[in-house]
Amino acid sequence: MTSVSRFSLSRRTMLRGLFGGATVSVGLPILECMLNANGTAFAGGEALPLRFLMYYWADGVNIGQFEPGQVGADWALSNHMSSLAPVKDYLNLCTGLQNRAAERITHHEGMTVFNGYSFNYAGGLDTDSGGPTIDQVIADAIGARTAVRSVQVRVSKRESTDGDGGTTVTALSHRGTPGNLTPQIPQASPVEVFNYLFGNFTPGVDDRSERTHVLDAVKADVERLKPRMGTIDRQRLDSHLTNIDELQAKINSMPPSCQLPAAPTETNMDVGGEEPITSVVDAHASLIAYAFACDVTRVASFLFKKFVSSTVYDEINASQGHHAASHLGANDPTYLAGIPYEMEKLSQVLQILMNTEEIGGGNLLDSTIVYASTDCSTGASHSIERQPIILAGHGRNYLAYPGVHYQATPWNGNDNSPNAAGNTSDVLLTCLQAFDPGATSVGGGAPQSNSPLTDVLA
After folding, report:
1. Is the pLDDT of residue 261 over 70?
2. pLDDT tens, residue by residue, 308-338
3. Is the dihedral of CA 88, 350, 429, 68 positive or negative?
4. Domain ranges of the chain
5. pLDDT category, 452, cuts 50, 70, 90?
6. C-alpha span between 300 and 257 (Å, rounded)
7. Model's pTM, two decimal places?
8. Cα distance between residue 177 and residue 304, in whole Å
9. Rounded to an integer, what distance in angstroms lies between the CA atom of residue 19 and that of residue 302?
10. Mean pLDDT on 346-372
11. Domain 50-185+267-456 sits in which CATH superfamily?
């Protein structure tokens, strides 16, 4: 009997075509024909992908209403975290940890929680990031395995009104080594991100007729490939292309104000003077989900809003900017309303990941580690004691699931005390070791960590 060979496809396969004289490429989801016979790894023996998303919201929290009253496995979401209920099992919450940044000038030092380095002071309210952020360290370890090393997105386009500058505020992500860093400028326009991830064609800024019809461009390649696939893979490919088509239709239906000029630091035109935050969060999160699912990239960062920015949460009828409200005190009504709104947007991102199917029946939160934090514990005081860190997803059974609430021993009030309650950088090292098990430290100087936080591991 003649055996029928199993059709195999490289995980790096891209659908390709031409549009308007430009080459267009579309990534594929992970298909069964890319896996080994047992479905436990790629056909070439490489492990199934593990992803990382770094998420930032600004201006801290109200500790009393944010930190849950229970610790360990039996914990309940606090009032301000209630919108995270749909993804609660995927959450590991770390509270009470000490950010050990050596310098303080308000907000800037809080960004140490993303890299484990103290900032470099440039004078006034200007600082430069002291070291690479954890997403870029992870990308250095795994980035060569995907077509796109990492992607950086931004929602609110508002800038600081207080003159804060330097690379610490310019970008969330930084690549390189201390003293030789390159800010990874985030893209605010979903159209720009779409073309960065899925095609090379760049549309005109405000000319909808020039927007890319990617699926039309790759139609011939799809028709060539599908007859060779099994039924399940054809269904998965159809679903993937439908999702991309729906996402593109959603982006194309946005008003021209949602497009950006080439420079991501320039603001786009708002809708009636207001930023379309929810629709942009949805588009960015969907793009990241599709990029993860088709293995275009495994690393992303998500900047919800810059610290000290003039962002107003118009969707909840905020009377003033969230940062300005934070300086009226932890109990200011506008500030108190803004924190649950920020958690609602984080929940929106996590639910999109959870609702995106993985090969084998899981979802993207099953194969992703999301590291989410802010730049201070409470905005009015700029305190970096008790900065909360949310770890979402279980990263292919690396993190505890259902998650736990880890709370450090209360800090004794001395900045550099050896008895201080842990180190926020310990959580960074925990994340890094999921991707680079041989890593023994993260960061440098006072915030450096050599001891991962094992309490949140599976």
Report:
1. no
2. 899 999 999 999 999 999 999 989 999 999 9
3. negative
4. 50-185+267-456
5. very high
6. 24
7. 0.85
8. 25
9. 30
10. 93
11. Alkaline Phosphatase, subunit A (3.40.720.10)
Whether the CB-CB separation of 59 and 374 falls below 8 Å is answered with: yes
DSSP 8-state secondary structure symbol assigned to residue 327: T
pLDDT of residue 150: 94
DSSP strand E in 207-332: where? 299-303
Question: Higher pLDDT residue, 361 or 80?
Answer: 80
| Average pLDDT across the chain, whole number | 84
What contacts 17, CB < 8 A, 6 or more positions away?
A: 23, 24, 216, 217, 218, 219, 220, 221
Scan for tokens 């009104």, then name that residue. 161
List Cα–Cα distances, 188 to 172, 275, 357, in angstroms: 13, 11, 26
Question: Would you say how long the chain is, in residues?
Answer: 458
Instruction: Output the pLDDT for position 184.
Output: 93
- Asked whether 80 and 343 are in contact (CB, 8 A), the reply is yes
pLDDT higher than 90, residue 424: yes
3-class state of residue 359 by DSSP = coil
Taking the CA atoms of residue 15, residue 17, residue 20 and residue 22 in that order, the dihedral angle to the nearest 10 degrees is 80
Q: How far is CA 205 from CA 189, 191, 192, 209, 257, in A?
A: 10, 9, 10, 11, 9
The string of DSSP letters for 5-55 reads PPP---TT-EEEEEETTEEEEEEPPP-GGGB-TTSSBBTTSPBPP-EEEEE
pLDDT at 163 (0 to 100): 75
* 176/192 Cα distance (integer angstroms): 24
Report residue 225 as tokens: 């490939």
